[in-house]
Amino acid sequence: MAVNMRGKIIEAGYPWRIRVGFRNSLVFDETATFAMHVRAKAEDANPIVELTTANGGVTMVDTTTLDIKIPATEASLWPVGKTVVMDLVRTDGGSPEHLGLRLQVPVRNPVTRL
Description:
It is globular, with a radius of gyration of 14 Å. The protein contains no helices and nine strands. Strands 1, 2, 4, 5, 8 and 9 form a six-stranded mixed β-sheet that branches. Strands 3-7-6 form a three-stranded antiparallel β-sheet, with no helix packed on it. The protein has strands spanning 3-6, 10-11, 16-21, 34-39, 49-52, 58-62, 65-70, 83-90, 97-108.
């Protein structure tokens, strides 16, 4: 069963990060790799951004904790005033494994736009 969580607000165009802990439920070995797609809606064909272990978007802090990081992007990519969705897939096994984590994160237009 998937767990729906709300994350801190994404300020369109600025970097964003969140730390997710899987206490008492999942334990990863140090070679685990992960992928996430961030989409305006789950059914959208193209993601706004793709996060992977290889590109530094999903990194292990320890065997039960991950950091998820969205780098600075073009602000126009983001659906300001709406919520984006992302979920987590483990990619190092024989076939990808969905980990049952789904984040729904609101997006807003920052006041300071550099």
